[in-house]
Design a protein that fits this description.
Helices cover about 40% and strands about 20% of the residues. It is of the alpha/beta class and about 400 residues long. It folds into two domains: about 170 residues, VC0802-like; about 220 residues, Rossmann fold. The strands form two sheets. Strands 1, 2, 3, 4, 5, 6, 7, 8 and 9 form a nine-stranded mixed beta sheet that branches. A seven-stranded mixed beta sheet has the order 14-13-10-11-12-15-16. Strand 11, helix 6 and strand 12 form a beta-alpha-beta unit. Its main location: cytoplasm. It is found in: Cytoplasm. Keywords: ATP-binding, Cytoplasm, Nucleotide-binding, RNA-binding, Thiamine biosynthesis, Transferase, tRNA-binding.
């Protein structure tokens, strides 16, 4: 037996206790969903990992998909061989020859989990390593800083030989840690916050506030495109489009220009909380990054955050802008985020927004609006348009079956 396959190693799932099996089963289903286009693949699940038999399929397009599956720690293209020394030696030689560019130094790493194998670990290091050196004279051994690591993993069922270890997204399987609503603007930060929340096992439903006719149809399509990109990682995502024009206009007419952003964001949280309650979500995710803009100072976040009783999750809170941009580029949202279409957060922005708003004054302004503000918030919730977005398109939720994608 000499077979090429992919060994998928589970990430944070491996630290779980009694519920570990449930997490692993969900992760395996999501891996199969991600690889559904490769009909020839077959699968074997072992403790803490999944073996994907290629059966003639190419490795690279499969690797592209696996890199983006939440819950995978790493994966490797491996040669699976019988417990035969010569077969292991030849597999090792094949593995080292697959590395591009060809390494100049290597190190042997043998894991002998099955103690019934006739040669111990030091013997195998010598027996396999010497065979590789004899057949590749350009290679040298470097145990401290090798360009390649040649790994031989001797398990009870077979021996696995490989050199390459690819990092994946890590985290937890999508949806295993509950549901949250994501405040999705058209900017750079919020899609990254959504991706980071999804990576930690949260199912997200996106909430976007638009102020037609002040915001354009292109701005709406931009947000749909961002939701589609996030859906690539999560299968499908609900996108709630909230009409915010009346609320925004009323707040702009209060005469408290410096507080307009604070008032707007508090109203957004009230709406997001109601949508969360309607859809079974237990938290709100935002793209706040400490000190980045006036509404993200500690004083502003304190006043804004008091408007909701749900946990406010801020994955980007301690990150700087360049770090956020790097992730946006990595996950494929950056180019869409920088398209020059306005969103409602860029409207009615005062010249000098408050960076340390007074909670008492903010509440006085809201109280002065009285029942009108409550009514407008209720109407905004009732008037919300909900789409189900997948990586390839969107549809009204009334036409979408409620079955899970995994």
């Amino acid at each position: 037996m000499n077979e090429q396959l992919v060994m998928v190693r589970f990430g944070e799932v491996s630290i779980k206790g009694r519920n570990r099996n449930r997490f692993e089963e969900r992760l395996v289903r999501q891996i199969k969903w991600a690889l559904r286009a490769f009909a020839a693949l077959t699968y074997d699940r072992t403790y803490g990992r999944l073996l994907v038999h290629l059966n003639g399929e190419s490795y690279e397009p499969i690797a592209v998909k696996l890199r983006d599956v939440f819950g995978i720690g790493s994966f490797s293209p491996v040669f699976k061989v019988d417990h035969d020394l010569e077969a292991i030696r030849e597999a090792a030689l094949n593995a080292i020859r697959t590395i591009e560019p060809a390494p100049r130094t290597f190190k042997m790493i043998v894991k002998r989990a099955w103690k019934g194998f006739p040669h111990d670990t030091p013997q195998m290091n010598h027996l396999v390593g010497s065979h590789v050196l004899r057949n590749t004279p350009e290679l040298k051994v470097d145990v401290r800083n090798p360009e390649a690591e040649l790994k031989v993993d001797i398990q009870a069922e077979a021996t696995y030989v490989y050199c390459k270890v690819e990092k994946a997204s890590g985290g937890f399987p999508y949806g295993m840690n509950g549901k949250a609503v994501l405040l999705l603007s058209g900017g750079i930060d919020s899609p990254v916050a959504g991706w980071m929340a999804m990576r930690k096992g949260l199912e997200v439903e996106a909430v976007h506030f638009h102020s037609y006719p002040f915001t354009s149809e292109q701005a709406k399509e931009k947000v749909v495109a961002l939701a589609q990109r996030l859906a690539y990682f999560g299968g499908k995502i609900k996108l709630h489009l909230v009409p915010f024009t009346d609320i925004q206009t009323s707040l702009a007419q209060t005469g408290h220009d410096s507080l307009i952003i604070t008032l707007m964001r508090r109203s957004m949280l009230r709406i997001a909380e109601r949508l969360a309650e309607k859809n079974g979500a237990l938290a709100i995710v935002t793209g706040d990054s400490l000190g980045q803009v006036a509404s993200q100072t500690l004083g502003s976040m304190n006043v804004i955050g008091r408007e909701t009783s749900l946990p406010l999750l801020r994955p980007l809170i301690m990150m700087d802008k360049l770090e956020i941009i790097r992730i946006a580029e990595k996950i494929g949202t950056f180019q869409t985020s920088i398209l020059p279409y306005e969103d409602c957060c860029t409207l009615f922005v005062p010249k000098s927004p408050a960076t340390n708003p007074n909670l008492r004054i903010v509440r006085q302004v809201e109280t002065a609006l009285g029942d009108d503000l409550d009514r407008m918030i209720a109407e905004a919730v009732d008037g919300t348009e909900t789409l189900t977005v997948t990586e390839i398109g969107r549809s009204d939720t009334t036409n979408i079956a409620e079955d899970k994608w995994f």
